[in-house]
Structure of Epoxyqueuosine reductase:
Amino acid sequence: MNPAAASAPTPDHAALARRIRALAAEFGFQRCGIAGVELGEDEAHLRDWLAQGLYGSMEWMARHGDLRARPQALHPGTIRVISVGLDYGRDADEAWATLEDGERAYVARYALGRDYHKLMRQRLQRLADRIAEEVGPFGHRVFVDSAPVLERALARNAGLGWIGKNTCLIDRDGGSFFFLGEIYVDLPLPVDAPATAHCGTCRRCIDVCPTRAIVAPYRLDARRCIAYLTIEHAGPIPEELRAPIGNRIFGCDDCQLVCPWNKFAQRTDEPDFRARNDLDRASLAQLFAWSEEEFLQRTEGSAIRRSGYERWLRNIAVALGNAPSTPEVVAALRSRAAHPSPLVREHVEWALRRHGAG
């Protein structure tokens, strides 16, 4: 045996874990915890959800199902997961006011500003680099929605919050308006105690859902979820779900806005997540008038770019169909009645019929 190796001090992993939490705070993360990699019960829950076809057209959910619940298979050598949360929350009263104004566009709060993926990934990589400065090279991989990761279960096990009846992660002090990111590591760090659930008998999130997508506590039917329909779904929006969508053109926050834990949540303002292009106050007609070039220019660096211009117009056409029958609303719809996209035309025609102007 190498005498130097034999006399090398045993790493103080508890001290390292404390250092990691301090570094995470230094890089702007409001919460940080460490979890193991065992997700047996969550894997069973995921398999049941997939077996029922509740994922809609998101085929990658089924294709990579097992990997989501097996961190060590996704990144060999992983024995711990560092989970972090980054706030993006805004004033709930402001959100409700927009939802109540049928001529204004509602964009999910997370998508009003800069796309979080790149920002979080950069910060997580810096955190990983700093850990390497402390311990030397180590096996790791950073994730921010970039691979099949069961992030809410891991975050719960790391003590960041519990999975609520709306399937969102909820923190007692910070509510649920925060992003998640992970670093898979091969370091034997001490794990945190999992968060305990505090939804109790409350079912406000279930009752408020416009399309009844929360079919049971902790069970979401993505095929009915407005976030899925307006972002992930590529084809026509089922006609019976168009009216309940209201003025929501990209995502939905109702199940979070109504959650009591968000009412008094203490949040941190992240400048990069502040609204751009007046998306927190723009009218539907204004956004519907954007050309494709303008859409691409204004959504640069935004999560909204993911939907593409055609779905953007489809979504706004539905919202205009649900808006008050004003000359401006009808004129906006008629301006796209001959749009080259059959998808857009279909939804414009539906909307015009709603106003008796078909």
Summary: The chain is about 45% helix and 10% strand. Residues 294 and 309 are 10 Å apart (CA to CA). The first strand starts at residue 31 and ends at 35. Residues 3-282 form one domain.
